[in-house]
Amino acid sequence: MKKIMKTTTGTYHGVIERKHIDFLGIPFGYGRRFKRAEEFSMAKFGPNEVNKVHYAVHEGTQPIQQQALDQKNKLSFGENCLNLDICTPDVDGKYPIVIEFYGGGFLHGGNHDKQMSWLDHQSVVHVVPNYRLGLFGWGVVEGGDTNVGLSDQLMAIQWVLDNARSFGGDVKNITLAGLSAGAKSISALMASNSTILDQIQKIILFSGGVQTIRDLETAQKVAEFICQENNIKSTKDLFNLTDDGLQLVQEQAIKGHVATNWFGPVIDDDLISSNWQDKLLQRVQRTHFKTIISAGSNELENYKNMSMNRLETEVFSDLFGKNAAILQKKLLNTSYSKNDFVKMLGTAMYELPARRLAGLLTENSDAEVYCNYSQVFKSQHGGIIRYLNMPVEQLNIDYRKNQQYVLNLLLDFIETGKPYVEKIKYEWPLFDSDRLVMELDPDDLKSVSVINRRYPENLPWQSYKL
């Protein structure tokens, strides 16, 4: 089996793993402090480097994050982390491509720890790019660019488009898949002004949608707050810190907070316009891309471990800022228990945005949208990914029945755009005026209508606002 691919950023030798070829740490761009990504060029390293074969068998540099401060961690972390990993069945093939963007609240993650390992060693090409995190990728800083992390993702997609034939991918069959912040990134990309996304045929969103697109003022206030907490005069001064220094400053400000909504794509009237909803609808009408949207029924189940006082006085405002009061009034009764409160937090963070995004697409266009209502692993955040990744022998016997069926449905969608399992004659229903969803229970797989699960109208699209 051929193990070498020649790309626009160099020639690389991979390694065979379970009859597939893995290429690790392939560079696709340069990351400079608070600036949008620049294309990678091997020629910068000398004329002989262009045709030289480089061994792509070791993990690339990972994005700066909290782990980078752990001296015992053996991974390499850095601001210049724009590399991607590829798992392909055959470099001479023509397989569907899945580009996975990892989640982690825009604060954690990297291609060293794939979240969708179930995609490896299937009849698809699985690509996982790095993108910058926290202030490095999503901070709005005086003298810096906006949507830096989004530009990293766009450059990775462009690299895949340019090099699909080199690693056995079908450039006309690309799916973007993401969990949490990865899904939120993909939604923002599809709602952006970039024409690159017109070449994407399908998207899969696990627990994430457009809810973290935020106004410029909120993004600026987050960076200013981080500076204030560290006695730094101006956000412009963040340019002068080392990589570790900038991460330490961020950690100091975040300490004690649940900061998973503090960062995200920004309405800058450049990459993302204030009328991003119109842009999203125009793209689906132009390209007819297809969508799977998945959410758990109790996404923040693990928050029950926190005290009620902390949930009400700290966590609620950390997640939603000034929108917390609006959400409490609309989604919570006057009298409520801790379970009610935690359920409301998960609904506001994930389930409600998922349903609203599905509604936006289907009520205003002829978009093909498939929704999943997951109740595996206590319906908590990322439960469906845990379910898909787990070796069948480690699953509770009640969980085993449907795992392969769900995997087949997702793989059918990736390959053909139509999720259907012949063995059980089950086709994932379209989310239309009947609001049908696929409900995944530990021991059941069925189609149900959520037409009665209506949510209040006129809620803000932007989850976190300062």
From TrEMBL:
Catalytic activity, EC: 3.1.1.-
Keyword check for Hydrolase: yes
Keywords in alphabetical order: Hydrolase
Leading EC class: hydrolase
Domain annotation Carboxylesterase type B: ranges: 3-443
Pfam families: COesterase
Gene Ontology molecular functions: hydrolase activity
Keyword Lyase: no
Entry-linked InterPro entries: AB_hydrolase_fold, CarbesteraseB, Carboxylesterase_B_AS, Type-B_Carboxylest/Lipase
Family under the similarity heading: Belongs to the type-B carboxylesterase/lipase family.
Protein name (database record): Carboxylic ester hydrolase
Organism annotation: Companilactobacillus crustorum
